[in-house]
Amino acid sequence: MARTKTGDSPWLLPVLLNAGFLQGAVYVVRPMVTYKAVDMGADPWLVGIVGATFALAPFIFAIQIGRWIDRGNAGRALFYGTLIALAASVGLIFVENITLLLLAMPVLGIGHLLVMSGGQTMTGNLSIDRNYEKNFGLLTFYASLGHAAGPFLGGLVADRGDLAVDVDSAFLLASLSFLVAAIVIWPLFETKRPVSGTKEKIPKGKVSEVFAIRSFGSAIFVSGSVTAVIDVMLVFLPLLGRELGFSVTQVGILLAVRAVASMMVRLVLEPISTRFGMRVTLNFGTVFTIVATVAIAITGNYLVMAVLMFIVGFASGIGQPLTMAWVSRISRPEIRGLAISIRLTSNRLGQVVLPALAGVLAASGAGTIFWLLAGMQGLSLVVTEKSLGKGKNGNTETDTEAE
């Protein structure tokens, strides 16, 4: 079973705490932005566009950020990204129209991208090979802890009864969480990756070099499809909740249930993936995600929805840490930040396209969005099987060296 001990890796605990507080704050802000947009008169299509703008600027700048991080700036990325997210959260308190909302969300997205790229690069560079699954599992566990606490506490703070929502109180709560995240990560501001005994010039990473790595394209597609499920649910579950008459607290509980389930699977992910291999473990999660998302599309019962959200959380919680470990293991240290940023770019592409497309589908009911998610996961299943199916047990260690 995965241990949470970090004493032999003193850099790890600040990274984990930063991930927990930052992700918690982001998961307070993003559902509240949906409520704020609806209260401003946004239709489902515009809600999707607002959700997509969170990923638009990061999608454009992710590769440049990855190259900057590879020059020894992972610690700076963590700190600066947290401050940028804090500024966006405070700014949202004063936003009074859709245009400003569309401008604030990319700023939040850039901050989020810096923290994700910095944290994952630092984890990949400072972890020894045999600890990849454990450390990335811990990183995503703490993120899931934030995912659980954020919507739940945000919903409690914002709930005014009779479907009324006080979003500004939730934004204030998020701002405090961002501030704590900045404080805990400050000691790692100057942290750099280990280098060999002889001085060597780190080459500028090329995107073509990263894509030449065997199975890299498959890894980022699978990663993007998992992220799309989580992101679209985060944006559109509040909309579905309003259609079904759920309060903001009830929606927050559903989002928290999903995150708690993801936390649970990540605590035991290391022995599971070691026993069954990456291919089998990923496919298991994908199949159950498909079944649960289809069921969500056709149910209107709150308790049934809670059970289904637990299944989605448990199943989809497998994909993120395994694809993080997949990408980190197959990429060399000098291009690892770039590779991770390309992975996040793929995630952001899904976060731009899927919410916008989901917004169009939501015109015929928010439940139809979940059919789209099931289809995306079906494609992911095919890609995983094609990429890892020939291996003895579906692990990437034996067939992923880039020459």
Short synopsis of the structure:
With 403 residues, this protein is mainly α. It is built from 15 helices and no strands.
Report the radius of gyration as a whole number of Å.
20 Å
As a percent range, the share of helical residues equals: over 70%
> Helix-strand pattern, N to C?
HHHHHHHHHHHHHHH
CATH superfamily annotation: MFS general substrate transporter like domains
Features:
403 residues; 15 helices; mainly alpha; 77% helix
Structural write-up:
The protein is an all-alpha fold. It has one domain (12-190, 204-388): MFS general substrate transporter like domains (Growth Hormone, Chain: A), CATH 1.20.1250. The protein contains 15 helices and no strands. The protein has helices at 12-39, 44-70, 74-93, 98-126, 132-158, 167-185, 207-211, 216-244, 248-267, 269-276, 278-298, 302-316, 319-330, 333-361, 369-388. α8 (216-244) packs antiparallel against α9 (248-267). The longest helix has 29 residues, at 98-126. It is globular.
Record the SSE blueprint:
Elements: H1 12-39, H2 44-70, H3 74-93, H4 98-126, H5 132-158, H6 167-185, H7 207-211, H8 216-244, H9 248-267, H10 269-276, H11 278-298, H12 302-316, H13 319-330, H14 333-361, H15 369-388
